[in-house]
Amino acid sequence: MNNRQISPLSLIELIESQRYGVEYQPIVDLKSKEIMAYECLARFTDIDNNNIPPDIIYAALHDSSLSLFQVEYQQKLLQLNCAPMNSDIFVNLDQDSYFSIGEGNENNPFLKLFKSFNHANIVVELIESLEVNDSIKSLSMIDILAKNGINTAIDDVCSPLSMVSTSVIQMVDYIKLDKHVVAEKHNKHFMLLVEALINYAHSAGKKIILEGIETESDIIFARKINADYVQGFLFKKWFHCHK
């Protein structure tokens, strides 16, 4: 297996063995320094217990909508079953996964799962995409979740590889700024855009989460741009859970 793909046989073996895991990373309130929520991150291992990057798995799964649903749903069950209590939980959900079995509304298994979770508030995190069709799916998915009282967030905003959908940004409750923002903090022209986005978010009653926080100077930067919450390797990861 190379760094860009997984063989069909290895993928089938992984699914049959359900070698799934989850890692919980804290999202920290900048003012109180308290943990506000945990993000659930999917983890996978091969037959030798070596980690496989999740993006490789999900890229392969997009060739089969039913397999995509099967893996994503099992991941969400694991993430919620092992979730820390009494803190909000951020769960990533690909738009294609949500609509993979053709049920968008009340009969959608993901929606039923989220509504049945009563230990804490769930925030569904959507991934920014270069595809226009994904943005259209995102809008539909956000609308359905909002009507059922489930908050949403948009991830990877300001990443060089993402396409910003202004409609999606208007509908979500949280805007997660990609780690690229920290990397480009000395780029004055880029930061004009970031600051305008943060000002809009706060004017519209939304919260900003800055990712990629690794040093104390990153914390100072987060305060300077008026982020609400931060996330990154500076904060100790919570724990791992395996199926």
Using the CA coordinates, give the radius of gyration.
Answer: 18 Å
Ranges where pLDDT stays below 50 over 5 or more residues in a row are none
Overall pLDDT score: 91
Q: Between the first and last Cα atoms, what is the distance in angstroms?
A: 23 Å
Q: Quickly count the helices.
A: 10
What class would the helix/strand composition place it in? alpha/beta
Give the % helix. Answer: 40-55%
Strand content: 15-25%
Structure, explained:
The protein is an alpha/beta fold and 243 residues long. Helices cover 40% and strands 22% of the residues. It is built from 10 helices and 10 strands. It has helices spanning 8-17, 54-61, 65-81, 95-98, 109-116, 132-147, 166-171, 180-183, 188-203, 216-224, and strands spanning 20-29, 35-45, 51-52, 88-92, 122-127, 151-157, 174-177, 207-210, 229-230, 240-242. It has an 8-stranded mixed beta barrel with strand order 1-2-4-5-6-7-8-9. α6 (132-147) links the parallel β5 (122-127) and β6 (151-157). It starts with 7 loop residues before the first helix and ends with a strand. The mean pLDDT is 91.
Element layout with pairings:
Blueprint: H1 8-17, E1 20-29, E2 35-45, E3 51-52, H2 54-61, H3 65-81, E4 88-92, H4 95-98, H5 109-116, E5 122-127, H6 132-147, E6 151-157, H7 166-171, E7 174-177, H8 180-183, H9 188-203, E8 207-210, H10 216-224, E9 229-230, E10 240-242
Parallel strand pairs: 2-4, 4-5, 5-6, 6-7, 7-8, 8-9
Antiparallel strand pairs: 1-2, 1-9, 1-10, 2-3
